[in-house]
């Protein structure tokens, strides 16, 4: 590992980078109607959820949320989404499943400002906060949702501890993300060894995510080319996961693993 690699592996450096990058990117794309920041998902069997016309342009990003929710019945539930990004998943879930309360939390103040201005629905609220120190009382949610964000957290076990704390007994933790293949056992270990949580299901969804990435690649590429200055375009294309980017190639090569999980609070 070179000096840059060593620096990037330090939690403090990673945290500072993500803290700077997401607000910068949100400011660059403000007004472009970008409500999702994930790589997307497309099932291999051709099954696709029915969507309202307003959600069709972001279908593949919505499908990642639909997969993570799975068969969970969210009607009347209190749901916390940790790292809601620009709030597209929160809006779709509230309109589709009618939870009694849905709180979207993100570290990025620009993203929270975007969410507050754009997603106005009964029962839906947004708050700025850190995944590793959730600003909520014990046992205050029925469901915690977390989509493609935990790789940014310097202390993943601290986040899992917070999830276990804010879930009521019997509550569910619905989680999806990616890791380098060498970090998968540590990732899964932090989930299964956490007292108070029980793993119910885990799925490798790398092939579906690759299909999703390829489907949204032209839109993501156009956005990066339009919104980022040229010195940052390469970085932006990797961040957006377009076809041929570093994460796309790493997922294809099996160097990155994308998984979804369902856990219960016991
Ligand atoms: C790839 S985006 C995914 C956003 C959203 N879940 C989606 O699918 O569109 C990752 C998000 O994690 C957020 N994030 C990074 N570190 C965080 C932290 N420590 N606490 C809360 N959110 C964080 C970023 O601000 C960003 O919005």
Structure description:
The protein is α/β, with parallel strands linked by helices. The protein has one domain (3-265): Vaccinia Virus protein VP39 (Rossmann fold), CATH 3.40.50.150. The chain contains ten helices and seven strands. It has a seven-stranded mixed β-sheet, sandwiched between helices. Helix 6 links the parallel strand 4 and strand 5. The N and C termini lie far apart (41 Å). It binds S-adenosylmethionine (SAM). The site of S-adenosylmethionine (SAM) has 21 residues, from helix 2.
Can I get a quick summary?
This protein is an alpha/beta fold and 266 residues long.
Using brief descriptors, characterize the structure shown.
266 residues; alpha/beta; Rossmann fold; 42% helix; binds S-adenosylmethionine
């Amino acid at each position: 590992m070179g000096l840059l690699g060593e620096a990037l592996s330090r939690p403090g450096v990673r945290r500072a980078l993500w803290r700077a990058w997401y607000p910068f990117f949100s400011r660059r794309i403000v007004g472009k109607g970008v409500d999702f920041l994930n790589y997307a998902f497309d099932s291999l069997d051709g099954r696709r959820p029915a969507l309202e016309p307003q959600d069709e342009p972001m279908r593949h990003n919505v499908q990642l949320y639909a997969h993570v929710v799975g068969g969970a019945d969210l009607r009347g539930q209190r749901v916390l989404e940790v790292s809601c990004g620009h709030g597209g998943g929160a809006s779709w879930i509230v309109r589709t499943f009618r939870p009694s309360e849905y709180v979207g939390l993100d570290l990025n103040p620009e993203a929270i400002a975007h969410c507050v201005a754009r997603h106005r629905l009964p029962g839906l609220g947004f708050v700025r906060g850190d995944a590793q120190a959730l600003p909520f009382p014990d046992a205050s949610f029925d469901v915690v949702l977390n989509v493609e964000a935990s790789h940014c957290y310097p202390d993943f076990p601290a986040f899992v501890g917070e999830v276990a704390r804010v879930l009521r007994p019997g509550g569910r933790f619905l989680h999806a993300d990616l890791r380098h293949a060498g970090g998968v056992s540590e990732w899964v270990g932090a989930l299964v060894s956490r007292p108070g949580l029980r793993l119910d299901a885990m799925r490798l969804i790398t092939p579906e995510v690759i299909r999703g990435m390829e489907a949204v690649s032209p839109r993501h590429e156009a956005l990066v080319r339009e919104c980022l200055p040229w010195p940052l375009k390469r970085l932006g294309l990797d961040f957006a996961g377009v076809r041929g980017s570093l994460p796309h190639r790493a997922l294809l090569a099996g160097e990155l693993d994308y998984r979804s999980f369902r856990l219960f609070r016991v």
